[in-house]
Fold each of these.
Amino acid sequence: MTTQRPELAALSVGDVVATRTIELDRATLVRYAGASGDFNPIHWDEGFAVEVGLPGVIAHGMCTMGSVVGVVTDWVGDPGAVVRYGTRFTKPVPVPARGAAVVDVVATIGALDPEAGTARVDLTVSHEDVKVLGRAQAVVRLA
C-alpha cells in the first residue's frame, strides 16, 4: 500500500496534522539501552535514580525524541522526507515500575517554505500536562 505524501499547497500555518499518544514502559527502556549502549542506571535502577535527585527511573531523552518523530514520519509517509529534526530536553519522563509513562504529541504546521518545498512541523510533547521537549521541530520536504 502506498501512502500519498501531503501536499505543501494544501497546508496552512497552524494546521494540526497529527496527534499521538506514546507509551514508554520499563521494557522499552531495556530495549533502548541495549540498542543504544546507554546503560546509565537512572534508566533502570529506581534507588540510584532517586538518590541522584530524580523522581525515579526516567526514559532516555533520545528514546523519547526518537519515538516522537515517528508521528511526523507516519504523517508524511516517508522517513527520508525529514530533512532536519531537533529539540531541547526540558523535563524528564518518569517511567513507573508497572504500567507506562504516557507522552502526548501534537504536530502542528509552524512554517511553510514554498520555494524550498518544505514545511516545519512543530511538536508539542507533554507528559501529565508538563512539556517534556521544547522547540521540537522537524522540517519535511513535501510535494
Note: Residues 2 and 60 are 33 Å apart (CA to CA).
Amino acid sequence: MKGHFHRRGCTCKKKRCNCGATWSFVVDIGRDPATGKRKQKTKGGFRTKQEAESAAMELIYELNQGLYVQEKDVTFHDFAKEWLLMYSQKNNVKPGTIRIRQHEINKLLPYFSLLKLKDIKAKRYQDALNDLKEKGYADNTLDGVHRTGRMIFKKAIEMKMIKTDPTEFAYLKKDRKTIEELEKQEIPKYMEKEELALLLQTSFQKGLDLDYLVFLTLSYTGMRVGELVALKWKDIDFNDNTISITKTYYNPTNNTREYQLVPSKTRKSKRTLVVDEAVITVFKEHMELQGKTKERLGEAYLDDGFVFAKHDRHPGYPIFIKTVENRMARLLKLANLNPDLTPHSLRHTHTSLLAEAKVGLEEIMDRLGHCDDETTKNVYLHVTKEMKKEASHKFAQLMRSL
C-alpha cells in the first residue's frame, strides 16, 4: 500500500521557495464492494512533503490495522434527527422522554446545525457548553443537554461516521456551592408517621370516591402515581398479596380517551411488591363495588380492567394523575397538614418509614424501582442519621443512670 505525492501551485525550480505551494497525497484504500472499483483517499494542504508523508503513513497504518474510518459528510442536524428516531425505537421510551431529548437537541442546534459531524471537534463542543452556561441555563438542564450530546456522538462513532468523539473529555462548568448552601441542602419533603396516619384517616372519613384506596396504596407501596393509575386487576395477586408494576400512564393533554400505557423505563422499574393484607382487603372491597357499577352501566362501561377507573363521565377509563394531585391537596387542607406536600412526597415518606424500620437502602431502592436516586439516598441518610443520634442519646442516658 503506497502513497503518491504531488506538489500543487509551484512552477519555480528552487529547492526552497515561498510561493505558497502545498503538498498532497493519494493513497489506495481498497475496493468498493458494490462496484469492485479501486477507491482512493486524497488529502492536500500540507506545507512540506515531509508533513504529507507523515499524514499518509498514519493513514496507511490505520488501514493495515483495520482502524480506518471513512468519515461521512452528514450534518449534525440530519444525524441528530436520525439518532432520535433510533433512540425512541430501541429504548421504547416514553413520549415525554422523547420530547425532552428533542428540547436538548434544540439547545445544541444553534451551534452545530449545519456543520458536518466530522468537523465538530472537542474545542467547538466545549465552547458550546460554556456558552450555554453563560446564558444562564440551570445545571440540570446542562446535564441533560450534555447527556444527549454524548449519546449522539457515541452513536456516530459506533456507526463509523466519525473517527473521534468531541464529547469524550468535555465538562460542565458548575457553580461552586458555599459552605452555607451545603449545610442548608434541603431534604425532600415527607411526612412523619403520625402525619401519614392523619392523612389516611382523613381520606377514609372525608375522602371522595377512590381517595382512601389511592392514598393507602401510595403510602404502603411507594409506587409512582403514573404506575398507580395504570394498574389493572390482572396486576394484583390476591393469593400471594402482591402487586406487579410493569407500566405507567402517560397523558400530557389530560384527554380521557387519548391516554397511553407505556412500559416501565428500566429493568428495576418492573417489579413485584408484597403488600399488607389490610391493603389487599380494601382492593377486594373496591373490586366488588366496581363490579356493581359495571353491571349497572353495561356496555357504557369501558371494561379494560383498570383498578382506579372513572365511574361518572367516561366510565371505565383510568383517572388522571392530576386528579390524584388535586385530591391530595384537598385532604391536606382538611387535615391541616403541610400544603406543599404532593403525591410524590408519599414515595419519600415510604422511604423514611422503611429506613426507620431499619430496612436497608438497597432493599428500599429495589422496592421503589430505582437503580440509583440521589433524592432517595438523601432521605435515607437523613433518617438514619437521626436514628444514630437517638441511639447516642439513649446510651448517654443509660450511663447517667448508673
Note: Strands lie at 3-8, 22-31, 38-46, 236-237, 242-245, 247-250, 260-263, 271-274.
Amino acid sequence: MAMNFDQLFGDHFLLIMVRVFIALLLSGLIGFEREMKNHSAGFRTHILVGIGSCLMMLLSLYGFEAYIDAYDNVRFDPARIPSYVISGIGFLGAGTIIVYGGTIRGLTTAASIWAVAGLGLVVGIGMYATAVFTTLVILLSLIFLNNFERLFTRGRSSMLIEIVALPDLQISSIVSVMESYHVTIKRVEIVKVENDLRSIFIRVHQDSDLDRMSLFEGISKLKFVKNIAERN
C-alpha cells in the first residue's frame, strides 16, 4: 500500500526543512567571515555545527512524539538534548585553540563555533527573529570591532608574523631584515612542523607608518623561506 506524504516524512517535515535551511544560512555567514580570515574553522565547519545543533533541537522537539502519544508514562523534556549540545561542543572549539609558548590563537574562532551551536538550537526551536538578530550582532562584533580595535590602538599595536622555512634558515637573517625596516621585535617562537619545516612566530611592534607588504617581500626573498603570513 502506498504511503502518503505525512506517513513518509512526518507531520513537521516542511517546518524542519525551513529551520535547517535557516540554520545553514546564518551559520554559513559567520563561517564565511572566519574563512575569509584564514582561520582553522571556516565556512564548512560552522555550517556543520549550526545544522547539527539545529538537528539535535528538532530531534528533541519532534523526535519522540510517537512515544509520548503511545505511552502515558513517557515524560517530555525538550531541554535535555540541547544541554548536551552546549556542553559537548567544547571539544570542537578546543581543537581550534593553538598555544605557542605565551601566544594563544584561535579563541575567537572557538567562541564563534560555540555561538553557532547556540544559533542552531535557537533556530531549531523556531526563534527566527532572535537568531537573525544574534547573527547580525556576532558579525558586527567579528568584523567592525576588530577594525575599531586596530584604529584605537594605531601606533602602539603589535603584529604576529608566521614564517614557514627550512631548518637552515638563520634567525639572524630575519632580524637583519626587520632591523632595516626599524621594526622592534617583542618575542620569537619556533615550532617544528611536518616535512622538516618549522614555523617561526615573531611578534613585533606595529607602527602606523610600517610598510608591511615591503617587509614581507624582503623576508620572503631570504633563502629557505617557504611562506610568510600575518596571524591574529
Note: The longest helix spans residues 128-152.
